[in-house]
Each structure stands twice: as C-alpha cells, then as structure tokens.
C-alpha cells in the first residue's frame, strides 16, 4: 500500500510539474501580449507622429502570416478561458521544503484538514527525483495527500516568504504570513479580512473533520 501511495504521489507530482511548466509558458506568452498592448497604448497617447508612421509602415510591409495571426488569437482566447475557468473563491497554503520537516508535516496535515491545497514554488534542488522522494515521504506517513508546484501563484499573490495563507474570493484576497496554526490564520481573516465568508466556510469544514 505504501508503494502504491508513493507511486500515486510521484504521478501526481509529475502532473503538477507539467501543469506548472505549461502554465509558466502560457504566463510568459500572456506577459508578452500584455507588454505589446501596453506599448501600443503608449504610442497611441503620445504625440510621436514620426515613430507611429514608421511602425504603421512596418506593419503594412510585414503583415502577420495566417499562422501567426491564428497563434496570437489562440493565445488571447486561452487567456480569456483561463480567467473564466479560474475558481472565484478558495484558499492556497504556500510552503517550502526549506521548512524543517516536523513543522512542514504539521502544516500539511492542517492544510489537508481544511481542504486547502499546499503549494510549492519549485522542485527541491531543481531535481524531479529528489522532489518526488520528498513528497512520497510525506504521503506515506499520512502528512499530505499531495502538493502542487506552481511558481505562478507565488507571483500572482506576491508571496516572498513561507508559510503564507491566501484566502481569495470575488471581493479580492487576504494574505496571512507567518508560522501560525491554520485555524488561527483563518480566524484572522474572519475577523478583518475581505474574504471572511470564505474563511468561515473553510473553518466550518475543518471543524467537522
């Protein structure tokens, strides 16, 4: 059973890594489009007629191929779909394997209790095998059912230190930083956060387990 659980963890980790890599590539493409649109906007508002005329001439002389135009359209379409599919409420628990093992096991156990995904910035020493071994050790002793590797979420919420809890909802999001028990961190959001209803929902779910 332990071997099967370990294999399951490795497969989950591989899926998470592939998803994160694909997400990172999409993120780079979206950032490229955003920068191009921002630059275009700057050109529109600035009184720089010669430069604008030169760029317009370049566009006329070098039109996008059908494949390039389709590629850009697909990127924009995927960006819109990503925004539509993105959950509007929930929570994320940002952790790292740099946290001492005893503390990390406690954090992951609490995250599982409140059904909050544990999220890592990257792999241990940038090595898949080392990371898979570390995750399997946590899964086999029951500390976690799995972790996600997603550096884009760290950037999205400006997470620079761990552990950090993010509770997000349609009103925005709340960040609680520091080595607090998850219950206490959620209670802080309930007290004064924008997403107090979501934090209360998570608390209530955890208390029933």
Automatic annotation (TrEMBL):
Q: Where is the signal peptide?
A: 1-22
Transmembrane portions of the chain: none
Task: For this UniProt record, give its keywords in alphabetical order, as a comma-separated list.
Answer: Signal
- Please give the name of this protein: Type-F conjugative transfer system pilin assembly protein TrbC
* Species of origin: Candidatus Erwinia dacicola
Q: Which InterPro entries match?
A: T4SS_TrbC, T4SS_TrbC_subgr
């Amino acid at each position: 059973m332990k071997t099967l659980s370990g294999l399951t963890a490795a497969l989950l980790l591989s899926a998470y890594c592939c998803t994160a890599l694909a997400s990172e590539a999409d993120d780079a493409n979206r950032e490229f489009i955003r920068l191009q649109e921002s630059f275009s906007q700057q050109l529109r508002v600035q009184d720089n007629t010669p430069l604008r005329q030169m760029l317009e001439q370049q566009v006329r002389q070098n039109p996008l191929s059908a494949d390039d135009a389709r590629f850009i359209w697909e990127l924009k379409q995927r960006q819109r779909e990503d925004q539509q599919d993105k959950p509007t409420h929930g929570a994320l628990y940002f952790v790292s394997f740099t946290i001492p093992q005893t503390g990390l096991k406690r954090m992951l156990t609490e995250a599982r209790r409140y059904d909050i995904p544990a999220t890592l910035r990257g792999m241990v020493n940038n090595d898949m095998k080392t990371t898979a071994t570390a995750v399997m050790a946590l899964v086999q002793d029951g500390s976690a059912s799995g972790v996600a590797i997603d550096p884009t979420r760290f950037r999205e919420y400006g997470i620079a230190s761990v552990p950090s809890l993010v509770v997000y909802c349609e009103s925005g999001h709340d960040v609680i930083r520091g080595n607090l028990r998850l219950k206490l961190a959620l209670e802080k959001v309930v007290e004064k956060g924008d997403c107090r209803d979501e934090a209360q929902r998570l608390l209530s779910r955890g208390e029933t387990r």
